[in-house]
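Incident log, structure service

09:12 report received: a user says their structure output differs between two submissions of the same chain.
09:20 pulled the input from the user's history:
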Amino acid sequence: MDSTPRKWDISDIPDQTGRIAVVTGANSGLGLDTVRALARAGAHVVLAVRDPRRGEAAAATVRGSVEVRRLDLADLGSVREFAASWQGRLDLLVNNAGVMNVPEARTKDGFELQFGTNHLGHFALTNLLLPHLTDRVVTVASQAHRAPGRPSIRFGNLNMTGEYAPVAAYSQSKLANLLFTLELQRRLTAAGSSVRALAAHPGWSATGLQSHDASAVRRALMWLGNRVYAQDSKAGALTTLYAAVQDLPGASYVGPDGFGEMRGAPTLVGRTQAASDPATARRLWTVSEELTGVVFPEPATAA
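09:34 re-ran on a clean worker, output below:
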């Protein structure tokens, strides 16, 4: 008899009946697979998407209770509108949406697109929804926070004006995701809230995210890697789902258990020293409040 412990998968998700979740970037890839798993387990899931028509097409493939609402994380006005329309309880927020290694561009509010979408958009959304939240926030980060060159938060030039590099900008945004999670958990704990902030990364998962890379060479390499090495998006979503439903400590970071954390079953993983620095996390939070005009509110108490 094989005594090897069975690895965690979607069959281990506990009953989610009665729970309400929001998943950003939910019309494809990791986001859609996260929605499918949560809805199948009984949760009511809101697909928060930039294009409602694509969102409705995605929602039609989901078995369970879902709805679609418009949310453009590259537009703080859209973020505020989404949050202002929310009524009642919210149990789970999954900050999944993101852009990766794209050509230089700006959000509607003038921020570098990757930092503005991946970090500032989710920063504002989380804080605006926090008064409704009863359980947890899961933010999807990336191994890119470990990229060569020791990524850091460029406080003197967050928009990387005059020195933009797609990979460096993406790495900065993913480092920001982890620092955001760290400081959010500190603030939640200090406020006496039972809400938890966690992060997860999917390893190397084959999604459409890589197809928008600014470099044709990187696009070709990623296409090849997606075909011969990467796990599929359903497997990649397992780390997010594990963080979303397991009883884990606040500020936990979940990733795949395979070699280099590139693929495998979800487990707790480490992060770089730069992603663990509380002083940098507090500084980033202060700057993010100034840039977005959104501050940490009084969180809800668990129902």
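09:41 both user submissions now match this output. Likely a transient worker issue. Closing.
09:42 reviewer note: The mean pLDDT is 90. The first strand starts at residue 20 and ends at 24.
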